[in-house]
Design the sequence.
């Protein structure tokens, strides 16, 4: 009798694992997104960050410290994960240089391919490389 009651639990657990692994996979792992496309998303993230933060920082640093602000320069996406939401949400770990120093940044981008639309939700220095 115990064997019959544990089967639904096991089947439900397996179904849960399959669903989670389908919706939360490495970006290049399911074949719908190529490495080239992931790298383009990384470049887009850096360009959007530069566009939104560049002017403000350039003015602040230039006025206060008398230094030139250098934009981030995209190097590569070193890690990517993809989540299915209303579209696709990409969690990217991006290598970029600024003032000759290479750093790693975390970015979150939402892509809605049917619109076509890309939106940078988050961009910040990575806590760990």
Sequence:
């Amino acid at each position: 009798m115990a064997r019959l009651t544990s089967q639904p639990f096991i089947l439900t657990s397996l179904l849960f694992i399959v669903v989670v692994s389908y919706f939360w996979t490495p970006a290049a792992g399911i074949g719908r997104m190529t490495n080239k496309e992931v790298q383009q998303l990384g470049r887009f993230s850096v360009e959007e960050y530069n566009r939104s933060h560049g002017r403000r920082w350039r003015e602040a640093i230039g006025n206060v410290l008398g230094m030139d602000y250098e934009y981030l320069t995209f190097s590569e996406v070193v890690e990517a994960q993809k989540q299915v939401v209303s579209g696709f949400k990409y969690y990217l770990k991006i290598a970029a240089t600024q003032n000759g120093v290479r750093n790693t940044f975390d970015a979150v981008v939402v892509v809605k391919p049917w619109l076509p639309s890309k939106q940078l939700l988050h961009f910040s220095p990575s806590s760990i490389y």
